[in-house]
Structure formats: C-alpha cells, structure tokens
Amino acid sequence: MNSNLMIAKLTLMKIFLLATMSLLLSLKGSAQTNRSVKPNVLFISVDDLNDWINPAAFGGMPGLKTPNFDRLAKMSMSFTNAHVPSPACAPSRAAIMTGVHPAKSGITGWKHPEWRKVPALKDVQTIEQFFKDKGYTTLAGGKIYHTLAPPRATVNQSEAKGWDYYYPSLAIPIPFQVRAPLSVIDPKLFVGKQPDYFSWGPIAMGDEYMADYQIVDWANYQLAQKYDKPLFLAVGLTKPHDPWEVPQKYFDMYPLESVPDVKIKQNDLEDAFVHGRRPLHKFILDNNQQKKVVQAYMATISFTDAMLGRLLDAFEKSAYKNNTIIVLWSDHGMHMGEKENWEKFTLWERSTRAPLFVFAPGVTKGGTSTHKPVGIIDLYPTLAELIGEKAPAYVDGESLVPMLKGQNFNHRGVVTGYELKEGPEATGGDAYTIRTDKYRYIYYPFINLEELYDHQTDDNEWENIAYKGSSKKVIADHRRLLLEQVNHLKWPGGNPKGYSITAEGLVRKTEYLPLESMSGNTKFF
Asked: Does domain 415-517 bear CATH number 3.30.1120?
C-alpha cells in the first residue's frame, strides 16, 4: 500500500472519529440541554393577604400602595376570583400542599395538627415531595405549611422528607420577629379585653430586623447559586398576618385621615350565620380603633409588597430569570370589619377570596387576568402540567394551564369548607360554600341554614336571598353542584334552627342581639 493511500485512509478515519465524537457530544449536550429546559419554580406563599392589593384587575383598596404586586401582575396572569379550600392557615395550607380538599380529608379546622395521621392523607405525596421525586432540588424558607415561631409557640406542620434544606430550620421555620413597644400595642386605655395576638402599631426599627426581610435575604442568596438540578424554591412570607406591626415608614404612607372607610352594613348578620367573633368587632368599635387597624393592615401589606420587590429584583438579576415559573398565592382573605368580623374564619367572600398569580415563560401572557372562579388548590395539578408531569390521581384541583394559554375552560364551582360554631359554648360542625360565576351559596348543616348571594348585584353579600321564591332554581342548582364535590351532605328541609322565614322569603335570626346591645365582656373565641 503506498504512503499516499495510507495517509488518505488515516485522514478518513480521523474525520470519521471526529464526526462520531462530535455526534456523541452533541447528543450529550442535547440531553443536558433537555434537562436544563425543565423549568425552575419560585413558589411564593403570602400569609393573610386579601384582595386589597392594587393591580388594576383586582380593583383593590383605594390609596393602598403595592407597586411590586402590580409589577408581578404585569409579568403574569392574575386570577382575580381565586378562592381558598379553607379560610384558616392550617387547613388551607394542608389542602394546597397535599392537593386533597378538606371535604375529602376532614381537615376543616384545627382538630388535626398532625395531618399525616388523617387516613385520607396517610400516603399522599405533597407538592415538594412530588418535585423532589421528579429530580428537583427543593428548598424552603419561612411559612409554607401552618407555622408559628418565637415569640409565639414553635410549630411547623411541614415534613422533613420533602425538603433538601429549610431556612432557618425545620424546627424553627421563621426567624425571630421583633415587636412594637408594649406601650404602643397595649396602651392600657382600652375598654374590654384585647386578645393577646391581636395588636397593631409601628416599630421604630428598620426593615432588616423583620423576619420576612431575613427570609427574602436567604431566598436571594439561593437565587445567586448554581444547582446541578432544577430548583423548587419555596418562599413563605409571614406578613401581613397579625400582629400588624411593621416599621414606622409604612405607617407614614397612610396618614390616619387618608385611610378609607370600609363598607359595613349595620346588623349585617340578622339574615346570616351569627359567628362567635362579634365581641372582637365590638371591642374595636367601642375603642374607636377601626381606622387604626385598617391603617396597620394597609401598612403591613405595603411592607410585604416591599419584600416582594426585593425578591423580584434578585430574581430578575439571576440566571433563573428566563426559565422559572413563579406562583404567588395567599392562604385566605381577611375581614376588616365586614360581617362584624376581623381576620378570617368565615365562608363569605372576604375570607375565601385571595390573590393568585402565575408566571410561566412561553405559556402566560404578561398583564392578563381572569375573573373566572378558580381554586388555589388548583396549584398542584397546574405546576405538575407546567413541568411536563401529571399530578397524582387523588389530587382534587384542576389544572389551570388551559386558562394560562388563553383557552376556553369550564372550571367547576370552587368549594371552601370550615368547621364553625355560633359561640364558645355552642355545638357546631362543618359548613361549606361554593362560588360560581354569579353566586355564592353557603350551607351550615348543623343548623340547616342556607345563604345565597347574587354577585351581579350584591358584591358585599349584604342580602341573603336563599329563601326567596325567585331563588328556588338557583338553590337547587347549587345544592347539586355542592353535592358533586361534598357527597355526604343532606338537606332535611324545614326552617333553619334558630331562624324564621317570612312569607316574602326573608330569613331572620330569632332573638337576634344587635351589636350595641352586647355586653363588652361577652366571651370571645
């Protein structure tokens, strides 16, 4: 064989080997690229945030300053009619994180602190466990499940096995939270008894002393790191949960004379469920504190907005910017005097409606919104579909991906459940509400009471039309819709216990006690 032919063959072999290596490397690179395309998830939970925030689609509270929620809305799809599975931290978060509705699990209140021992939840895979199983690095900081930390009791209903790391720790999930001076939050001038946890007032310290500031600092550090696997980063902001105590500058944003009045109807409970929280409303009115409490809640929302802004700043500077899904949700709404209630724990709109935002690159169109009723329990199947996976069969929510893509989607009515009673000594039970496009229907089986509100004409839910002749078909339809999701319910017929119904269909609480006639020492629970 002559030397020229040998050189030619060797050259061809080298070309073949180089081509083969190039192909293998390209395949390897392709596989790495496919793995890297798996989107990261920034999972933001906000505690006790109602729909007062001011992205245009929400309507909001006039004068409330939330530029960073507006910024997120411009990036995302906003769900302006989203409702929680239960109007309290523990049952709502357990349902959202497991995907199992309270109607199925039985966790409708506070009676199951060890939720894993509940038969319906014994073997479920929670959201973070699902993502870890799919190859994600899972990190959490702050309040994701129901959580308390010093100076309150130490509680965290989250499990260890779903998280690669929990900040500050699984045992103490929230950094220490400074408080306003005792002279501010307990001036000793109030008439009646103030609950220990129910306080408000400015803190003469900077943002950096707040627990949420430190949680965001930790999250921002994580966003500056590189991980070999896709990232599921859960950030649990603890405000605007009470106590409504934040740095002075946030109170200065809302001079007392500029704080708007909240629309409240006198004797609003005369045709509705008379909850046992009225003494707190009376305490606030008797001490002329309505404006100050509303001011404090507005200030605390603006503090939360500032923390969200710090998180978004870090995100937009990070390597995760173009390949990360963001969801932001709240565990329930918040009453500010409506229905003679403060905080949550009811089945009316103020308690069940909460903000929900979804940003999914390549899927969502920034600045869009929908007012179709959806459930925050829909997050589990939605996130699963967005990463190309399928949620477990037991998950109760519906994927919102069709809505994110702008497609027509017939979402069923949204059900919320909670354990209620009329007073500290009363016998209560589980009650349920379903929110549809036009109506809210509520049923309290333990007293056989029904409520129906027409949201086309009565956004404040001031007139219970459940017993009017013109409502018969709507009531029948909503009973059926509720029964489809809560299949153990029964309607025995007859008048509700403790109520009368007039010939015109007006329902009235018998022996109704107007607020002004209540004793200031009425027991609160």
From this structure: yes
The amino acid that residue 366 corresponds to is: G
Topology of the domain covering 40-414: Alkaline Phosphatase, subunit A (3.40.720)
- Which CA distances in Å does 300 have to 102, 242, 295? 29, 9, 9
167: how many CB neighbours lie within 10 A of its CB?
23
Q: Among this protein's residues, is 411 annotated catalytic?
A: no
Which residues are 138's β-sheet partners? 232
Cβ neighbours of residue 399 closer than 8 Å, sequence gap 6 or more: 378, 381, 382, 384, 385, 391
Q: Which of 83, 89, 275, 335 is catalytic?
A: 89
146 a catalytic residue? yes
The answer to whether the predicted template modeling score (pTM) of the entire model surpasses 0.85 is yes
CA–chain centroid gap for 445, Å, is: 26
Ordered DSSP codes for 285-327: HHTT-HHHHHHHHHHHHHHHHHHHHHHHHHHHHSTTTTSEEEE
For the chain, the average pLDDT equals 91
Helix (H, G, I), strand (E, B) or coil at 348: coil
Each domain of the chain, given as residue ranges in start order, spans 40-414, 415-517
% residues pLDDT > 70 (the chain): 92
Q: Which listed residue (83, 101, 112, 146) is catalytic? A: 146
